[in-house]
Amino acid sequence: GNSVTQMEGPVTLSEEAFLTINCTYTATGYPSLFWYVQYPGEGLQLLLKATKADDKGSNKGFEATYRKETTSFHLEKGSVQVSDSAVYFCALSDERGLDSSYKLIFGSGTRLLVRP
Amino acid sequence: DAGITQSPRHKVTETGTPVTLRCHQTENHRYMYWYRQDPGHGLRLIHYSYGVKDTDKGEVSDGYSVSRSKTEDFLLTLESATSSQTSVYFCAIRDSLGHGANVLTFGAGSRLTVL
Question: pLDDT (tens digit, 9 = 90+) per residue, A52-106?
Fold first, then answer.
């Protein structure tokens, strides 16, 4: 079945460092891909998305490119801030051809800690 | 604010007792979801609904039931809670139209502890 694999955390970086969080997926068909972020004590928020191969999603300095040839959707940011400390979830859509069966499948999450 | 409220936000209960979590939305969205979040597992889908009285199972539905008698409310019930159901539960909603058609919007979560 469809699945998402993320790199295990925690990832600890100094402020202004470059960030990469790896995400690979297994899917049939042509899913959409997402990154969600969860700040402490809160629910998940959509960070960015891409709906087809070679699309690049971007938001708040974060970017991810939908790579069908490598089945990957790695999250990157050029210069992280302390306020980026959170848990990041990669997810894919699972539609099975019917809108009524649409759901998201999530990876296990990667905790990011940015030190001043 | 997407207009999605979960209650209660925190609950401690004992093994064998029934528990109901409520998700309320003011967006009139057709689709609603219940996920649980556990360390090392990310979010896993319990049940979802694609309309009033229309529900289906997710990957971890055993021990849970749901009901949706009106568009705005989606209830998750644990008939007899077990310690393995200690978790954080998230409700999500989805519109079926426009740019947000494939995006889930999440509530703040309900932390359940079963002793």
Answer: 899 999 999 999 999 999 999 999 999 999 999 999 999 998 876 666 678 899 9
| Residue B99 pLDDT | 61
Bridge partners (DSSP) of residue B34 are: B47, B91
DSSP state of B99: G
**Pairs across A and B, CB distance < 8 A:** 53
Q: Could you tell me if residue B50 is left (phi over 0), alpha (psi between -120 and 50 degrees) or otherwise beta? A: alpha
Amino acid type, B90: F
Q: In terms of CA atoms, which chain A residue is nearest residue B90? A: A43
Nearest to B42 among A32, A42, A107 (CB): A107
Interface test with A, best of B6, B21, B36, B43 (most A CBs within 10 A): B43
On the 0-12 / 13-18 / 19+ scale of CB atoms within 10 A, A91 is buried
Q: Residue B19, SS3?
A: strand
Q: Nearest residue of A to residue B109 by CA position?
A: A43
